[in-house]
Amino acid sequence: MAKVVEEKRVVTIVFAGDSGDGIQLTGTQFTNTSALFGNDVSTFPNYPAEIRAPQGTVAGVSGFQLQFGSVEVYTAGDICDVLVAMNAAAFKVNLPRLKKSGTIIINTDGFNAKDLRLAGYESSPLEDKSLEDYRTISIDVTKLTAAALVDSGLGKKEVERSRNMFVLGFLYYMYNREIAPTEKFIKEKFAKAPHLIDANIKVLKAGYNFGDTSETFTSRYNVKAAKLPVGTYRNIMGNQATALGLVAASQKAGLDLFYGSYPITPASDILHELSKHKNFGVKTFQAEDEIAAVCSTIGASFGGELGVTASSGPGIALKGEAIGLAVMLELPMVVINVQRGGPSTGLPTKTEQADLMQAMYGRNGEAPMPVISASSPSDCFDAAFEACRIAIEHMTPVFFLSDGYMANGSEPWKFPTTDELKEIKVVHAKERKQDDPEFLPYKRDERLVREWALPGTKGLEHRIGGIEKEWDTGNISYNPENHERMVKVRAAKVARIADSIPLQTIDSGADSGKVLVLGWGSTYGVIKTALKECLEEGLEVSHAHLRYIEPFPKNLGEIIKKFDKVLIPEMNNGQLVKIIRDKFLVDAKGLNKIKGIPFSTPEIVLAIKELAHA
Amino acid sequence: MTTDTAEIKLTPKDFTTDQEVRWCPGCGDYSILKQVQSILPETGVNKEDIVFISGIGCSSRFPYYMDTFGMHSIHGRATAVASGLKIARPELSVWVITGDGDSLSIGGNHLIHTIRRNFNMNILLFNNEIYGLTKGQYSPTSPEGKVTKSTPMGSLDHPFNPMALCLGADATFIARAMDRDVKHLREVLVRANDHIGTSLLEIYQNCNVFNDGAFEIYTDKGSKKEEALFLEEGQPLVFGNDDNKGILLDNGTPKVVRLDDGMYTKEDLWIHDSSDKHKAYLLTTFFDNPSLEGHMPRPFGVFYAQDRFRYEEAMYQQLDLAVERKGEGNLDKLLRGENTWTVS
């Protein structure tokens, strides 16, 4: 039967199943295919900390939410159009995200008595009247997958592992997508196991054909390519963009990249990505612990490389003392924190912005450091690059804050060419001849920056260390006046970075008005989306988003003054809001969410309206 | 690297800084500093290619007194800093200066991991069996029952055996020396420097303020011959006044025998072979409390030396291999990735 094709502007799908069901892979494939087709996309993977959490339970549900559209999308969507539920638990957890009249695609095999019991249902929700509000498509995916693979000779487990491909194929049909990109992916992924290539492609096609031949729906959907700014795009995840930003900075600076790290969620993917790029001279060192990771990085920086270390909150806490050492040594280093829910182990796989204070003040003594932040997955590239630039040009460790949401999320990226990237100027202290004046390791230029003196350079032999240094010479000094002077000069050096960073701009809205929404980090997309809605309604509201948190752009105070009220949404209990109040003596209001999940657009819109009408 | 200075012969004085040495008068560290400064000119390495890295503690002030590159890092982490430096700059001559608290307590983890990776560096572990800079608490090498400021009723800790620990971590070079036998210290320092890989040299160092005489039994003329066993390559294990004792292997078990009663001659003894790991393990067990009856003498010298690949060399081989396989990195290609689409 020929099916009607219905046009859609934006669609939000959530794929959900057991954490072993291949949900993340399915979601990523649908995302990549949609991006390649030209849609704007934004994703939100949401999975448990356990690799194989208790099967079939609510705790073990892995989800992947994706918004794609023919218009620009800035979040993974607030409310879903389609829920794909591989079992009862996944259904239970995600049904509240589905809009009324939304579509539920159900794997009926995941709703047997045991599944229902594990999910905490007394009777099958599929028989409940409340489901009449939705359009339910029930498919026995397990049975159909097995049927497609009946001659494959694969065991039960391998067959079950291919079920996700059936669902993917089905959705490709539903949304009028090509299966070719996924076919290509399967061929690469299983290059060493050809029998799995055939099986997975077979199931993918079976799912697609099932959509076509079964009388499941009368219409297919079409989401046209988005009118993104002209250019060439690729899809990219945040951690991947961070890794590429580091490689790009090392190439532009002409330095080898040293990456010292210890595995931790959600930062490890940066290590995985970088370890693929050894042909760029990238040296990845998986150290014995977080402390060795940062200390080896300091050693590499002392040796003249671009030293980068990364972790998440708990690991950053362990690195604290060594980061303070880097502040004292005044060596370039980038410290990446892919933030997750805290404190302690907290919520390892969930997102939060609760380490801003740690980045700003989490060291003993007066140890100021520049802090910069990315605002979306692709923006991680620019932020990582900029962190490296500041570290090298200002001889200081720099904090780069990412978070779990942007690190694992993905979006289209209009990638730059090498020529479009900023230059990074590396200055090394020069060799001394016999009659040259004595080398002073802590002599500073007009920006208060000392010289990078590499071992192996004649006449520059010198000692640095964690004990307070004497002005210019760097020798040990316990002199009281000297200590105060050195503490102040280290702070002034960081403050002067404000002279070389761009001024703050307004992202949307007017330059002045009633409410300024001031954000930082991965809340960018949701604030932007909320602003669009509010501006359409005629509210006097504007949005500014910070890349530079320490030091702030020079004009931030002036911008803030032009608004009656300031709203600061953060996925924490109020951190930037404290800093803004402290620096600018303004009665900024916090909007705080500490649930391990990003804000939804209505939450922001509501807070804006409340403040605007207060 | 410039070679024009290589012809100018450096002297120990060239390695001395203008900084006032601030160890307590009579500290064993002075002797070690002097011996290190005296062997460096002989290594033929240019001053600017030498880096001393230390942690925290009395010994860790060492880099300030060496006119080379140096970093006084943080407690326990010198080996980790040195590891990163070796990866970045494998051609540098890197020396780690550390103490028993620094490397065996707070930095124990980094020590064992550095050793197993076998970076080409020299680790000088100044062991004085006490925390000196914090004014006299027991350390991980203090003997059981040690009365210190933090253990007025005696320490409950069983001490580390540093040689056994490091060999257990698959060290490729372990040796022991003492501050008061400068000739021997010098020889072992040279051998440690010559070894390509991580050289772990434990140096018994007297803290005359908080733990005076901890090693006197090995350094005092009256007891040294009886208590210290000097290992010499290819030579039998002989010790005692007038060299009247030796050690032989009796079915694999070390046994002290007399050489002056006609029962045994030097031909019967265990011949020292630093390439023999089994013998090295046995030597590390010569760690008895010297007050116990029938204890073995404490060995000094090179216990074990073996050639094994260095982490940093393996890393550079991998980098070369990556270029061979994929070609020199092309940034534009990398940024572009595999799958792109164009909006026009």
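qc> Residues 194-213 of chain A form the longest helix (20 residues).
qc> done
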